[in-house]
Structure formats: C-alpha cells, structure tokens
Target: RNA polymerase sigma factor
Amino acid sequence: MTDELELIEQLKSDIHREQAFRALITQYKERLYWHIRNIVKSHDDTDDVLQNTFIKIYKNIDKFKGDSKLYSWMYRIATNESITFINKNAKRLQTSNEEVQQLALNNLTSDVYFEGSDIQLKLQQAIATLPDKQQLVFNMKYFEDIKYKDMSEILETSEGALKASYHLAVKKIEAYLTQD
Model:
C-alpha cells in the first residue's frame, strides 16, 4: 500500500510526475489493455481507448481522492472510456451499441491479434449476447479474476448485485454454448 501512496504522491508532484506516470503505465498497461480489449474486442480500438484512458488519468490524477484503490479508479476510467468509445461508434454508424459489438465480434476472426480457437470465438459470441452490465461483470470475473470487492469499487455497485449479475451471465452463456 505504501508503494501506491508514494506513486500517487509522485504523480501529483510537479517534479516527479513524468517519471511516476511512466512507472504507472509500465505497471498497469497490460492489465488495462486486456480489460478494455474484453469490452471493445479489436486490438486497434483497444490501443486507442487505452491511450485515451492514460490521458484522462494523467489529466485527472489531482482529482483522485484516495477513496478507492488507484487501480480501481483507473479501471473505472478505462471502463467508462470503453463504453464511451462503443457509444460514439454506434452514433457514428447510426446503429445500436449491440450492433457495434456484433460488428467488432464478426471482425475478430480477421483480427491478426486474435489467436482464439473456435470455442473461444463461440464464448465471445455468447458474451456478446449478454446485457452490457453482465458482459462487464463476466469479463472482469472470468478473464481478469477480479474479486467482487474490487469490482464493487470499480463499477460502484454492491457485491451482491455483482454476484447475481455474474451468476445470470454464466447461466446465459451455458445456455448459448449448449444450444444446437
């Protein structure tokens, strides 16, 4: 915890800010990348959203109050940036968020960075059928193994609601994967 407090202090300091921000990127880049990738699907889009996330973190670090863990705050920003990205794409394409996600999913097979098997693709298709909140909760729990307590801070909702969302998501995914 001391390391996190020191890092926050350095991020808020004019003298150490650049160096601390580089350390922050090194420490969290991969975890945030995969969190965003699970939401937006495309590697190139993920890179764009990740860059926007770090810009927002850099610009707003002074507003971080320490009410939650630093990574919870950053995950919240990454989640919001991902959702904003999907919403902007839907608006630009004059379509629904679901259709934008379906389009991204359809493009997964041609994405050179997607190395998934047929079953992994089918799992992604099953996840895409879930409501947005259940997708987020499922991805965070299943792929990132984030504890409900931490997820509760990131998504600003109760652990009970998150457990219920995950349980429903698993049931729907099982049903999707076992249909003929």
